[in-house]
Amino acid sequence: MGLLEVKDVNKRFGGLQALGNVNLSVAENTCHAIIGPNGAGKSTLLNCLVGKLIPDTGSVMFDGQSVLGRTPFEINQMGISRVFQTPEIFGDLTVMENMLIPCFAKRDGSFALHGIRSVLSEGELRDQAEQMLDDVNMLDKRNMHSASMSRGDKRRLEMAMCLVQNPKLLLLDEPTAGMARADTNNTIDLLKEIKEKRDITIAIIEHDMHVVFSLAERITVLAQGTPLVEDTPENIKGHPKVKEAYLGE
Ligand code: ADP
Ligand code: MG
User: Fold this and answer.
1) Computed from CA positions of residues 164, 169, 174, 176, in that sequence, does the dihedral angle turn out positive or negative?
2) 179 against 131, higher pLDDT
3) Which domain of life is it from (predicted)?
4) Fewest CB atoms within 10 Å of the CB: 17, 81, 181, 201?
5) Is 5:32 a contact under the CB 8 Å cutoff?
């Protein structure tokens, strides 16, 4: 039994079958990559795991409990954190203020902006946030206005906002998209380090095969909303079906 168990999930958008009988099992403390061409349904699948979308049929179990019928916030409280395909940070806030939101939410089960601002002077949460920013090499940027940062830094901040919650399951939707090669390599190193240091399970959607093969222990290939094959990176590399569907060969 995996930490995450997706069974026979279907999701339609009008006439379009975005997900068709998706089964996926992500084992605890592994990194599982989901790859596939644009429009394959990868983001839709992730949205079904975090309560942003509700599958038409099927089940999604996390740590022995169903996530279906719960709000994204409740699912987050169960131990799932997610990095979006497009960075979702609060541009008007500083890096540090952004970091305090998940710290606050985890501790109190809710958050309010005035609360975050008053907490800035509070030791415990601030130390937690600063430590995490240090881990991702962003401590020197803590007072920066978030909107003015580079895309790479925004993604890095978003990743730190997820990791500071110490999630059991981290979901990443194309975390290195739009990053320069150096930032991509930093992200790989950061994720490797996190995997070594913590009990964490990672499910990652990624187009960059260098990232996938650097991190993943299992790979699921999704094509037209259905898993085509699931295997180890070594076997996926040479798989004829994968070459045909994904690499267009
Ligand atoms: P991927 O992340 O693999 O590129 P998506 O999950 O974003 O693919 O999309 C899968 C398919 O579902 C695409 O054809 C996309 O256009 C469609 N789709 C995704 N979200 C919606 C939506 N909210 N409404 C209608 N169609 C959608
Ligand atoms: Mg997507």
Assistant:
1) positive
2) 131
3) Bacteria
4) 181
5) no
Closest ligand 1 atom to residue 40 Cα is: 3
* CA distances in angstroms from 80 to 24, 50, 167, 172, 210, listed in the order given: 16, 7, 6, 11, 25
Domains in the chain with CATH codes: 1-79+167-249 (3.40.50.300), 93-165 (no CATH)
Q: Which ligand is nearest to the CA of 47?
A: 1
pLDDT computed for residue 233 by the predictor: 93
233 is written with which tokens?
């990176």
Residues with CB under 5 A from ligand 2 (ion): 42-43
Q: What ipTM was estimated for this complex?
A: 0.98
Looking at the CA of 18, name the nearest ligand: 1
3-state class of 236 per DSSP?
helix
The pair of structure tokens assigned to 28 is 């605890």
Mean pLDDT of 115-144: 84
Count of beta carbons in the 10 Å neighbourhood of residue 119: 21
Pairing mode, strands 16-26 and 65-66:
unpaired
Q: Which residues have any ligand 1 atom within 6 Å of their CB?
A: 13, 16, 18, 36, 38-44
Q: Supply the DSSP symbol for 145.
A: B
Strand locations in 67-189, DSSP E? 80-83, 169-173
Asked whether residue 189 carries a pLDDT value surpassing 80, the answer given is: yes
Q: What is the pLDDT of residue 85?
A: 64
Nearest CA to ligand 1 atom 19: 44
Tell whether pTM > 0.80: yes
Closest listed ligand to the CA of 175: 2
User: Residue 156 and residue 148: Cα distance in Å, rounded?
Assistant: 14
Q: How far apart are CA 165 and CA 243, in angstroms?
A: 38
> Which atom of ligand 1 approaches the CA of 44 most closely?
6
240 alpha carbon to ligand 1 midpoint, in Å?
26
